[in-house]
Amino acid sequence: MQKFTLDDLRTIMRACAGEAESIDLEDDILDMSFEELGYDSIALLETAGRIERSTGIAIADNDLTILGTPRALVDLVNSGYSREAVT
Amino acid sequence: MRVRCAVATGLGVAAPNGLGTENYWTATLQSVTGIRPISRFDATVYPVKLAGEVRGFEPAEHLPSRLIPQTDHMTRLALTAAAWALADAGVDPGSLPEYDAGVVTASSCGGFEFGQRELENLWGRAPGHVSAYQSFAWFYAVNTGQISIRHGIRGPSGVLVTDDAGGLDAVGHARRLIRNGTPLVVSGGADSSLCPWGLVAQLPCGMLATGQEPDSGYLPFDERAGGYVPGEGAAIIVLEDADAARRRGARCYGEIAGYAATFDPRPGSGRPSGLRRAIELALADADVTPSEVDVVFADAAGVRELDRVEASAINSVFGPYGVPVTAPKTMTGRLHAAGAALDLAAALLAITNGIIPPTVNVRPAQEYQLNLVTGTPLRARLRTALLIARGYSGFNAAMLVRGVA
Amino acid sequence: MSRQVVITGIGVVAPGGRDTKAFWEMITAGRTATRRISFFDPHPFRSQIAAECSFDAAAEGLSYQEIRRMDRAAQFCVVAARQALSDSGLEPDALVPHRTGVSIGSAVGATMTLDREYAVVSNGGRTWHVDHRYAVPHLYDAFVPSSFAAEVAWLAGAEGPAAVVSAGCTSGLDAVGHACELIREGTADVMLAGATDAPISPITVACFDAIKATSIRNDDAAHASRPFDRSRDGFVLGEGAAVLVLEELASARRRGARLYASIAGFASRCNAYHMTGLRPDGREMADAIKAALDQSRLNPEDVSYVNAHGSGTKQNDRHETAAFKRALGEKAYQVPVSSIKSMIGHSLGAIGSIEIAASALAIEHNVVPPTANLNERDPECDLDYVPLTARELPVDVVLSVGSGFGGFQSAIVLARQDLKAA
Lengths: 87, 405, 422
Description:
The structure holds three protein chains of three kinds. By secondary structure, chain A is mainly α. Helices cover 57% and strands 0% of the residues of chain A. Chain A is globular. In chain C, 32% of the residues lie in helices and 19% in strands. The A-B interface holds A 14-21, 38, 42-43, 45-46, 49, 52-53 and B 64-70, 128-129, 131-133, 135. Strand 6 of chain B pairs antiparallel with strand 5 (162-165) of chain C, so a sheet runs across the interface.
C-alpha cells in the first residue's frame, strides 16, 4: 500500500510555499501548526492541491479548514490510501 | 496655498545592463549594453532574436523563500528594486505613522511568464492543475500589493497601465498623492515578458526588431531603424514630500517639478499628435522655459514613423538641434512599465553627477535634426531634464525633473 | 473655490440587462442573473456558476473590425461609454479634446482573448514554445490592456490624460476616484470614467477554484450569491462594465446638464496584510470610509445608504461589517446596506463602477436595491442589509466601498447635488 511520508510533505511544502525564515522544515515539525510554520491559507490550498494531484487523494474543503498540523495532513492522505486499498 | 513639492530620495534598479543602481549607472556610462541574444528560452523559431535580459539575478539571494513560489519573475525584480530603493532612501515605511506611505506602480502585461505556466497547466493538463497563486500572481496590481505587504505600506496606493508611458504616469500620480497629503510614495514600474508567450503576444504589433546583431538591433533616430528590442527590468523610486525629506535629512536626487499626460487622436483623424502638448504642459507645470531644459531623455521607439513624430515634437518646442537628447534605453531595450521609470532614475543620476549618459550604436539621421548624445557620455551642468514616454496606441507622458541646489 | 465633480451620464452593460434602464429594473426587482456557465462546458470546474451578460456586439453597434480586434471587456466598456455619452446629452463637438480624459478600471484585462488565443498558439497546451504563426493581428491590445482606455478615448475624441487603472477588485472605484482627481486639480473638465471586466473564462474559473473562493452551489445557481447570509459559500463570478460621464460642476450647470449626483469624496488604503486574506477588524476599509466622508465634509449620520462590497465570501462579509461599525459607529445599525453582487455576481474590476452607477441611480430614484438571497443573516453580520426587496426612502448620500486582492480598500461618497454646499 502506498504511504505518504513527512518527507513527501516537506518536499511539496517547500515547492509550494518556500520555507519561513526562522523555520527549518527538517526539524520535528509534525505537531507544529501550519501557522507557526509560516504557511497561510493560500499556501495550504496550494499544498493541498499539489498533494491531490500527485497522490490522487482528494482533500475535502472541510478537512482543509480543520487540518492544523503536518501530522493531520499526512494522516489524512494515508487514510485515503487505506480506503483505496480496501475498495 | 503652497503646493507641496515631491522629491526623489531613493532609487532601486534591476536592468539588463546592471543589477543594482550603481552597476546600472556604471555600465551605462561605459556604454555597456544589456542587449544580447535571447537566452531565457529557445528563440530559434522566432523572428526576434534579441532581448534585454536582467542577468545574474538569483531570487534566493534577494527574497525570502516563501515569496518565491507565489511570485512571477517581474514581481521578484520589483520587490528587490523596492527594497533597494527604500534602503537607499534610508526609510522604513512600516515605522511611519499608519497611512503616511503609499505605493503606485505601473504594469503593462502583469506576470506574463507565471501566467503562461498556468495557462499551460490549464490547457495541457486540467483545470485542477492551475495554481492557487494564479489568483493574484499574474494580475497587474500584484507589484503594488506585494510591495505594500512586504514593507507595511497602507496609505493610498494604485496601479496604472499605459504601456510604455506607465513609468512616468505612475510617478506623476505618486506626486499627486504627495500633494494631496501622503508624505511618502514608492513608485516606478516593473515588467518582464521574456517567455515565448510574451514574445508571441507582442509580435503582431509589427514593431519588434528582427536583427541578430546586438549592436544593430535597436536603432532609434537612425535611418536603419527597424523596431525595438524587448527587455525586462524594474526601476523603483522613493518619492517624498520635500519638507518631510528635508526634516529627516534625506538625500535628494531631484524634484519632480512638472508632469503631463495626453492621448493621441484617433489614427486617420488628421489631427496632430498630442506629444508636443504633453511636453509643453509639463514645462508649464514646472514653470520652466525650453531654454532652461538641459537634456531630453527620449522615448526612442525605434520605429521610423514614431521617431519622426517624437523628433518633430521635440524640435517644435526646442528648435532643431536645440537641446541635447539621449536614449540610454539603447543599452537595455524597451522595458514597458519599467522603461520610463528607469529613464527617470538615469535622469536623476545624470543631474546629480553632471553627466549625460550616451545613446549607443545609433548614427543619428539628419532628417530628425536632433542633437543626439552618442559615443561617450557628455559632461554638463544639468539643472533640469525632460523625460518623454509613449505607450502603444497613443499614450504620451512628459516629466520635468529639477536638481535640488 | 475648489472644483467639484458631478455625474452627468451613465452607461451600464450588466448581466440580466443590456443597458442602464434594464439593469436598474432588474436589481430593484430583486431578480438575479447568476446561472450555470454557458460560455464553455463548466463540468470540469468546481464552481460552475457565473453571471453572464447577454451581449450582442453587432446589435450594440460595434463594427466587424471592432468586434474582431477588441476583447469582450473592451467591447463592454466602449458600448457603456457610448451609452453614457448619449445619456449625458453632451454633443460630440461640445467636448474639448485636450480637456477630456479617460480612466477605465480593469482587474484582469483581456483575459478571454489571452486564454482563448493561448490554447491556439500552444495547440492545447502542448508546447511551451508557442507558435507565432497562429498569433492573431491585434494580440498586442490584449497583451497590454491600456487598449481599453484607448478605445474609449477614440470613441469620445478624448485627447487629455487616458489610463487604465488596475487595482484588482477596487479598480472600478479607483478609476472613478482617479478621474475625479484629474477634474478637481484642473487637468480635465470631462472624464469618461468607469471599469470593465470579462473574466468568465476557464483560466479565471480555475484559479478561483484553486483558492475555493467561488460558490459551489451549482444546483441552485440563481440563489448562489448570498452576501451576508449564514449559508453563503463564496462569490459568483460575473462580467460587465459601467462608464460614467464626469464633469466639472460649474460647466455642467452652464450647459444645463442633468446632474445625477456629485462625487463628494474618495479614499483608498491598503491592508498590507495578505494578497487575498483580510483581517477581521476591517480597520483599513474603515479608515478609507472616514477619509472619504471627511473629504465630502459629511458625517456618518448623513449617509442614507451603503452600497457594500458584499462579495459573499465568509471572510469578506464579516470584514466589511466590522469596517462599517468601526467607521460609522451606531449609524451602522441604522443605515440600509445592500450588495448588488447578490444579483449580478462579482465582475472583479468592473463591479466598483457598476456599483457607483447603482448608487447614483439610488439617489436619482430614492430607491435602495436589495440584497437578494438573504434569508438568514450570519449572526456576525447583524446590520440591515435590505433583504430581498428594494426599499423606497430618501437617498441623499451614498457610501460605496470595495475590497480587492492585493489588500486594496476603497471608499467613495456620492451626494445628491442640491445637498452639497457650494
